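Quick start: read one record
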Amino acid sequence: MKKLSEYKGEEAIDLLAELIDPAMEIMADPDIADMLQKRKIGAAVKPILKSHKQAVIAILAALNGKSADEFAQEINVFTIPKLLLGVLNDPELINLFSFAEQTEGVT
């Protein structure tokens, strides 16, 4: 899984288009947004997984260059935590989520 800064050109635009909706869904949850902004990453994992399953799959699939359906068939109880923590520990992605939340509040 690449970090956001590793995507360039049209690939970056395509990825951003895939990430916006699920990121906004997660960041619209005030408890999760607060935890992520305070960098309480571990505490955010359970509520994200319990309340935003499809958004998690969409984000992880996009970051791994796969469709959500294809990716959902491949993940398991061992791969999900590693992938999700990788995403939540990527400061660029957290900044994107924070930007998505601010944008939603403006619109």
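The radius of gyration is 13 Å.
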